[in-house]
Specification:
Hypothetical protein af1432; single chain; binds fe (ii) ion; 10 helices; mainly alpha
Length: 187
């Protein structure tokens, strides 16, 4: 498992090199926390696969490559895993969970590890300051941000959380975020 520690360090450096230190702090470290919480409840899951997914699932975003978030993320993850000497079978398993982590276009994770990654990703969005950090980048005005974020938090809550205990853990904050981001006056 010490290769995982090296990959974690690699992911931190990759975020920093791309000017995304905030993404490391507000997202990847939070996904790690959530994944570990889930793994305690589901000890039969392959921890190494889950943690590889945690560190490598958002490489499309981190490397700012245009195109499909999950497909490009899987290709970039493959390159990194090859560099770290992982066997092709393991690389395929990790690519598959990255491909399905957004739960979009009817592509849902099939394996336990894939479900844990998608759940941890969604939980972290709701439990951390992730969406506030995105708002603070100022790329959208308040009105379009609210519209965008409501869809995201709903998808997080409804489509990406595969375990009832995880849904319970985030339910209160999900409701609070919906109240916060609800468009005023029906606009
Ligand atoms: Fe992602
Ligand atoms: Fe993510």
């Amino acid at each position: 498992m010490d290769k995982i520690i090296q990959i974690k360090k690699w992911a931190k450096d990759e975020c920093a090199a791309n000017g995304l230190g905030w993404f490391w702090d507000v997202h990847l470290l939070e996904v790690e926390k959530c994944a570990k919480t889930i793994l305690i409840k589901l000890p039969k899951a392959d921890k190494e696969i889950v943690m590889l997914g945690v560190w490598l699932h958002d490489l499309q975003r981190i490397r700012k490559i245009d195109g499909n978030h999950c497909k490009i993320g899987a290709v970039e993850a493959e390159k990194v895993m090859q560099k770290f000497g992982y066997l092709p079978e393991k690389i395929e398993i990790v690519k598959e969970i990255i491909l399905a982590h957004s739960c979009e276009n009817d592509l849902a994770p099939k394996t336990l590890e894939g479900k844990i990654l998608a759940t941890a990703d969604a939980m972290s969005h709701i439990l951390s300051d992730y969406y506030l950090a995105i708002a603070a980048t100022g790329k959208r005005d308040a009105k379009s941000f609210k519209k965008w974020v409501m869809k995201k938090i709903d998808r997080d809550y409804r489509k990406k959380i595969f375990f009832p205990f995880a849904k319970k853990l985030i339910a209160e904050r999900y409701v609070a975020l919906r109240k916060l981001f609800k468009t005023n006056h029906g606009n």
